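[INFO] parsing input record for Nucleoside diphosphate-linked moiety X motif 17
[DEBUG] input buffer:
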Amino acid sequence: LHLPQGQFSWVPLGLWESAYPPRLSWGLPKYHHIVLYLLVISQESQQQLQARIQPNPSEVSAFMWLTPDVAAAVAATEDGTETPRLLPQDLPPSVLALELEEDGRARPLVLPMSTLLRMIPTMAEGKERVSTGTKFALRLWLQHLG
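[DEBUG] output buffer:
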């Protein structure tokens, strides 16, 4: 996303050390890096930003816009706990994501809310979930909102 100079600001939210696989019992890490999470504040609407966003398909497989209530529910499913915290009953059953194809075009993808609320499994599985680092970033964003 290219933001014109003077039309946005940003605040660092935090750093996250990321390793994959996420558990040593699954094998030695193949990937290890530091992620810097930034909060970008723009005067443009979500629709204006959406029209200009151009994710790199070699770095991003899908993206979505989350409302604060959905973000809070995702952030509340803390990895490493036996049971998730109590979640609001009025969450939508699914959310709309945009999945990137190899040529960079985005196609709509409806994700069940259960995918976003899934925690890291105890055994290595190929199930989709929100990463622990992203949950960390969502908690920082929600704290920043106040």
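[INFO] The CA atoms of residues 41 and 146 lie 15 Å apart.
[INFO] shutting down worker
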